[in-house]
Design a protein that fits this description.
The complex is a heterotrimer of chains A (658), B (87) and C (200). Chain A is mostly helical and 658 residues long. Chain A is 62% helix and 2% strand. Chain A has a two-stranded antiparallel ribbon with strand order 1-2. A two-stranded antiparallel ribbon of chain A has the order 3-4. A two-stranded antiparallel ribbon of chain A has the order 5-6. In chain A, helix 2 packs parallel to helix 4. Chain A is globular and about 75 Å long. Chain B is mostly helical. Helices cover 74% and strands 0% of the residues of chain C. In chain C, helix 1 packs antiparallel against helix 5 and helix 3 runs antiparallel to helix 4. The radius of gyration of chain C is 19 Å and the shape is elongated. Chain C starts with 20 loop residues before the first helix and ends with a helix. The chains are: A mainly alpha (658), B mainly alpha (87), C mainly alpha (200).
């Protein structure tokens, strides 16, 4: 439906929406309130919230899976999980955290903030955006159905052959895993096309690429990584599914195949994937640190180019996950050197963040604490990563808890801390309320202490020989003295409870903020970028008038200007800047209309998947739903025409806001 | 480009295809592999540049497409190398 | 569709680069498809020599037949570009004509593939016969599915255009389908050379 400006005080001027029809039968959805407005929305902000809420739910699921693992390993001869269930638990913990939490959470932030940061009103392909969300949701749910239908996937998140084949994994768990990931892969690929087109094509006038906020820049790199990496795992997943379901032998040694083919395909995806996981968080803290240092980001071009460099070089290191697989010395040496090289651009970023902090007027809000936490914890994880790059050393470390320590420092201390920084930073804009800062501080410290208690000892456990994916440990193997593995396992398990409590504090913070949180001003942090130049929450059309951009940190430069002495002084408040926008509001704004087709099309996909596992006729039904959805979509205009409305909307009917 | 131009391109492509097929029957000696790969590449570039209009369009399209193509070639050639495919 | 300004039939989108969203999106997608087919081609190249007890490529491939098939697909690219040309000129009749011919040529190609696979099967080359056969069928099968999807899109666009139900620019829609179609053709250019013409 075309949105006209609707003044809240004169309801008689609101044109009743008479929806046009979809496929000549159903009326197009038009609701602006209620559950239908969420189900059929194409608004990037609503979709961003749905992505993030779903991701948060899966964070809890993945966290519970982790706690069960730690309970099993807390004491010798653990009886919490048997070996089979343990295998499922670590497989699903990792799969959930990587694919159903971190990636969609970053997608949620990207969806919400990229259009706002570049001065756009929505993304390039709003219906594809909606489709991506529903495909992700259905994929994530489908994947987890396996728990109830014979057992979850149990081959590890990297699903190596031969464990992944039908002999060693006869349940349907891996089939659910494969198809669930294909669905979420489709979501990611569509999202990548969408967001790249958005960033390149939908920037406000004057928003040159080198004036974009770093969060948007890092997301642009991430989308290119997704664009090119997802097809590779798609191939791997197809080959595996053909092996499991049609007796192909792609990874079966007895048939003359090479199981390393799987490893290569998986890690050619898998290594860019870890940069996909971390770069959004790097982007978040590149926003947060300057704001709470009251300084512009140090070395903006270096931060941009190092991000691009990481994206680039990240394609050249995948076989460092395969150092012990028998590649041979030449391959190992090449990948070892490439892996050392990739530490450099990240180091550049750390220098730039540190130099931003240096000499700044620091405000240690919760968002800032999490941002600084990322720098410290990611650096620790990065250092252990550098030790892995030394291939002979890695031969001892690989497949031990030392690796588990590394990736949890970079993923939890890095990616997740960055996301939490983003939550505290952006919550006021999205929900109009401030998350409680005191609780935020407790949240942060519990998570820091919990994280280090859980994953710190794993360095010791690993170097002392505790392998990964081992469902039980015994006193006999635990050793003595300082390196008693039992002791450190117990510490790690207690740490996981502390960590969980920290996360719980965040959830409590959400609830108490919703109930009686402090109402947020327009610009609570005195921020720098365009997403803050909006109402709380932003209006459906984001900006009353699209701003013309003349600076990096455009919003900051509208508030502050150089005086005669070259000092930056405040010339306008945020409210005054907003008033200027409202006074120049566009007369006639067309927004993309809600639509049934994205969710219909997305709904057909899990039906196909279910049918492929259990019964082909069901798959055919799913296929028909998909075709029906595609057809309806293709003949529906993105924005419903004005003539559909009764009375028809024309320019003279439009009322200005304010 | 005019329709006649497109037909001309198609005829060139057909001729190169015929030449490619001829490598199956005629002994090219050590030139066989390079000749075949070069002809394949030329056909590829002709279709992309002229039929897909990439030569005449904004360079951004070329960048995103060739980035994907070159990345694919490099990554998969390296992977195959680890299997000693080229020795 | 872009928010804020409508894209008229004749005007261009108001985008930062001046380029069409749909066109940029399609080229990005085609870039990603290179990684997809690259993976399938690499799998085939790795496994092409592993024939086990089954037939070798040189024993089953019928080069003359496949050459004709390749020629048919190549010509379909010509007819596709003629369709796009007609669409840009607003010549509906010729647009429908050339799109239909393209779809027919595509269908001929797919028909040829089906015939070829049936013949291979009868000669003892099933899907699971050997690693060579599995990788061959997966690669060419994926390609065939892409062609089929292309044919469905071609026939759909004719149907939708005839009922004047195309939202947005008709010429651009035809051009987008054209880009997809040509891509499917260039993948075959690679497959035909690497799989059929390099003896194994």
């Amino acid at each position: 439906m075309a949105i006209i400006e609707r003044p809240t005080t004169t309801p008689e001027l609101i044109a009743p929406a008479t929806p046009s029809s979809s496929l000549g039968a159903l009326k197009r959805p038009v609701s602006t309130t209620g559950w239908k407005s969420w189900l059929f929305t194409v608004d990037h902000k609503k979709l961003g919230i749905m992505y993030s809420a779903t991701a948060l739910f899966f964070f809890i699921v993945g966290g519970l899976e982790a706690v069960l693992i730690r309970l099993q390993l807390a004491a010798p001869n653990g009886k919490v999980l048997n070996a089979d269930l343990y295998n499922q638990m670590f497989t699903m913990h990792a799969t959930t955290m990587v694919f159903l939490f971190v990636m969609p959470m970053a997608a949620g932030l990207a969806n919400y903030f990229i259009p706002l940061q570049i001065g756009a009103r929505d993304v390039a392909f709003p219906r594809i955006n909606a489709f991506s969300f529903w495909a992700f949701l259905f994929g994530g749910l489908f994947l987890n159905l396996s728990w109830f239908l014979g057992g979850a996937a149990d081959g590890g998140w990297f699903m190596y052959a031969p464990n992944s084949g039908p002999i060693y994994s006869p349940s349907h768990g891996i089939d659910f895993w494969i198809l669930g990931l294909q669905l979420t892969g489709i979501a990611s690929l569509a999202g990548a096309v969408n967001l790249i087109t958005t960033v390149l094509n939908m920037r406000a006038p004057g928003m040159k690429l080198m004036r974009m906020p770093i969060f948007t820049w890092m997301q642009l790199v991430v989308q290119f990584l997704l664009l090119f990496a997802v097809p590779v795992i798609t191939v791997a997943l197809f080959l595996l599914s053909f092996q499991r379901n049609f007796d192909a032998t792609f990874f079966d040694v007895a048939a003359g195949a090479d199981p390393l083919l799987w490893q290569h395909l998986f890690w050619i995806f898998g290594h860019p994937e870890v940069y996909i996981l971390i770069l959004p968080s790097f982007g978040v803290i590149s926003e947060v640190i300057p704001v709470f240092s009251r300084k512009p980001l140090f070395g903006y071009p270096f931060v941009v180019f190092s991000g691009a460099a990481i994206g680039f070089v990240g394609w050249g290191v995948w076989a460092h996950h395969m150092f012990a697989s028998g590649l041979g010395p030449v391959s190992v040496a090449v990948f070892s050197i490439a892996t050392m090289a990739i530490a450099v651009p990240t180091g550049v970023k750390v220098v730039n963040w540190t130099m931003t902090l240096w000499g700044g007027k620091l405000e240690f809000t919760a968002a800032m604490k999490f941002a600084i936490g990322l720098i410290v914890l990611f650096t620790i994880g990065g250092l252990s990563g550098v030790t892995h790059s030394v291939a002979p050393s890695d031969t001892q470390q690989t497949d031990t808890y030392y690796i588990v320590a590394h990736f949890h420092y970079v993923l939890f201390g890095g990616a997740i801390f960055g996301l939490f920084s983003g939550f505290y930073y952006w919550w006021p804009k999205v929900f109009g309320k401030m998350l409680n800062e005191k609780l935020g501080s407790w949240n942060f410290w519990m998570m820091v202490i919990g994280m280090n208690m859980t994953f710190g000892p794993m360095h010791i456990l690993g170097l002392q020989g505790q392998p990964r994916r081992m469902y039980q440990w015994t006193e006999a193997r635990a050793g003595e003295g300082f390196f008693n593995l039992g002791f450190w396992n117990a510490v790690a398990s207690v740490g996981s409870i502390v960590l969980s409590t920290g996360v719980l504090l965040f959830l409590i913070n959400i609830v108490i903020t919703a109930r009686n949180g402090k109402v947020a001003p327009l610009d609570p942090w005195n921020a720098r970028s365009l997403e803050w130049m909006t109402t709380n929450p932003p209006k459906e059309h984001n900006f009353d008038t699209i701003p013309t951009v003349s600076h990096l940190d455009e919003f900051f430069h509208r508030k502050y200007q150089e005086d005669a002495h070259g000092q930056m002084v405040q010339v306008k408040t945020a409210e005054q800047v907003m008033k200027e926008l409202e006074d120049n509001a566009d007369a006639h704004i067309h927004m993309p209309s809600p639509s049934y087709w994205p969710i219909v099309l997305a709904a057909g996909l899990p039906v196909i998947a279910f049918g492929l596992i259990y019964s082909i006729p069901i798959a055919i039904v799913g296929g028909i739903i998909v075709l029906f959805g595609a057809y309806g979509w293709s003949i529906e205009p993105g924005t419903a025409p004005d003539d559909d409305f009764d009375p028809p909307t024309t320019t003279k009917d439009v009322v200005h806001v304010g | 480009m005019s329709n006649a131009g497109y037909v001309r391109i198609a005829l060139i492509l057909a001729a190169i295809t015929a030449l490619e097929v001829s490598t199956y029957y005629v002994d090219f000696g050590p030139l066989f592999m390079p000749a075949l790969l070069i002809m394949m590449a030329i056909k590829f570039v002709i279709v992309v540049s002229y039929f897909m209009h990439l030569k005449f369009d904004n360079k951004l399209f070329s960048w995103v497409f060739y980035a994907g193509l070159i990345l694919a070639v490099i990554v998969y050639v390296v992977a195959l190398s680890t299997f000693h495919f080229f020795s | 569709m872009t928010a804020d300004t409508h894209a008229d039939e004749h005007g261009s989108h108001h985008t930062s680069t001046g380029l069409s969203n749909n066109k940029l999106g399609m080229w990005l997608f085609l870039g990603s498809e290179c990684l997809l087919f690259g993976g399938l081609i690499s799998t085939y190249m790795l496994y092409r020599g592993r024939v086990g007890a089954g037939p070798r490529p040189s024993q089953v491939f019928d080069i003359p037949f496949t050459s004709v098939s390749s020629f048919v697909l190549l010509m379909s690219s010509l007819t596709m570009v003629l369709a796009v040309s007609a669409a840009h000129k607003g010549d509906d009749r010729n647009t429908y004509l050339w799109i239909t011919v393209t779809a027919l040529l595509g269908a001929t190609f797919v028909g040829g593939q089906v015939y070829e696979f049936t013949a291979f099967y009868n000669e003892g080359m099933g899907f699971t016969t050997s690693l060579f056969s599995s990788s061959f069928y997966v690669l060419t099968g994926f390609h065939g599915v892409h062609v089929t999807v292309g044919i469905i899109m071609l026939m759909s666009i004719v149907g939708v255009m005839k009922r004047s139900k195309v939202p947005g620019s008709k010429a651009e829609t035809v051009e987008m389908i054209g880009l997809y179609w040509h891509f499917v053709d260039i993948v075959w250019i690679i497959i035909f050379t690497l799989i059929y013409l390099i003896p194994a």
